[in-house]
Every structure is written in C-alpha cells, then in structure tokens.
Design goal:
CATH architecture: 3-Layer(aba) Sandwich
Number of helices: 8
Strand content: 5-15%
Shape: globular
Order of helices and strands: HEHEHEHHEHHH
Strand order of the largest sheet: 3-2-1-4
Distance between the termini: 57 Å
CATH superfamily: HUPs
Helix content: 40-55%
Radius of gyration: 18 Å
C-alpha cells in the first residue's frame, strides 16, 4: 500500500479515536445531580461496581478487571465496595469473581466488600443494591463510561433522592484501552437499545 494511503488510513483512525475520546469524556460527565446531597452522616461512601459476564470457565474477564480498577481508583478512604452481578455465564456470580480480583490484586480490604450475587440486568444491579444504597452517605457507580451513565439514569428513575447522592467516578482516563473503548461504547449502545425494546414489550 502506498505511503500516502497508509498515512490516510492512519489519519482517519486517529480522527475516529479522537472523536471517541471526546464523546467518552462528555459521557463521563453527564447525568450527575446538579445539586448533590448527602445521606446519613454515619453512612458510608458506597461504590456500586456493576458486573460483566465472566469467561465460560468462570475466569476473570478483562472488562470485569477494568470496572474493578475504576472502582478502586474512584474510592474515597473507607469506602464500601458493593459488587453486583449474578452467574449470567458460568456457575460463579460475576460479583464474586470481581470481588476476589479487587481483594487479591488491587488491595481492597475484604471487610470493605459486599456481594450482591443475583442481578442479571443493569436495573437489577440497582434494585438489588438498594439495601446498601439507602444507608449510603454518598454513592458512586463504577463501570465503563457509557454503561455507568445508563446506570445513573436508571438510578434517577428508581429513586431521585438516591440519585442526588451521586458523586463522580474516574471512569474516563484519556486513551485508556485505546480502540477497545470504542468497541465497548458500541456494545453499550446496542445493549441499551436492546434493554429499551424489552422494557417496551407488553407483559404476557
């Protein structure tokens, strides 16, 4: 391939990557409360870590590792990490797999970990985590950027008072994951459309 063609392909790729980074930055800042409040003064700062399907053999998936790292770097001192996710694939709940990684590799104290092992959808992540969220002083939702935004929107629908306790997570770091971020953004777009279609279907 002539060098000019290669340069053109490289330039186009760089533009796509730059566009994706800008969109991810905007998404990471969207759908937070304009006037945040706090819950009980004796409550804990809660990190809700959203699950992602595991490998077939119940090993950690790279996306699970990334979401756990987002939670770890976003946590204030003494935070409670609530890992939420059932056994969508395999026999071990996603929450358990991610919690083990967080404790063993990221230094999250086991005493600061809670596991919600039933959720199979994003809305269930939030609904089943309510016992921890209700008592939280502040709330942070840890996931990849577009998915975390969708979860924030769901929390606003579920309980506006809890939504007001949201604080920012560090789910956007420039150039983190590179092109994989674009793939995950597309995946989350498709997942969101699929979830909306299911919710709009009449009950049988």
């Amino acid at each position: 391939m002539p060098w000019r063609a290669l340069a053109g392909v490289a330039a186009a790729g760089a533009l796509v990557l730059a566009f994706g980074e800008v969109q991810a930055w905007r998404t990471a800042r969207a759908d937070y409360p304009a006037d945040p409040t706090s819950g009980p003064a004796d409550g804990r700062d809660v990190l809700l870590v959203l699950g992602f399907r595991s490998r077939d053999d119940d090993r950690l998936n790279p996306v699970q590792a990334w979401r756990t790292r987002i939670a770890a770097r976003s946590a204030p001192p003494g935070a409670l990490f609530v890992f939420s996710g059932g056994a969508v694939r395999g026999s071990v709940p996603e929450a358990e797999i991610m919690a083990r990684f967080g404790a063993a590799r990221l230094g999250i104290p086991p005493s600061d970990i809670a596991i919600e092992p039933r959720a199979t959808t994003t809305r269930e992540n939030l609904a089943f985590a309510l016992p921890w969220l209700t008592d939280a002083r502040t709330i942070r939702i840890a996931s990849n950027t577009a998915h975390a935004r969708r979860a924030r929107q769901y929390l606003r629908d579920l309980d506006p008072a809890l939504f007001a306790r949201l604080r920012r997570t560090r789910d956007f770091v420039p150039l983190e994951l590179g092109p994989l971020r674009l793939a995950l953004t597309f995946y989350d777009f498709v997942a969101a459309r699929t979830a909306r279609r299911r919710e709009q279907q009449p009950a049988r």
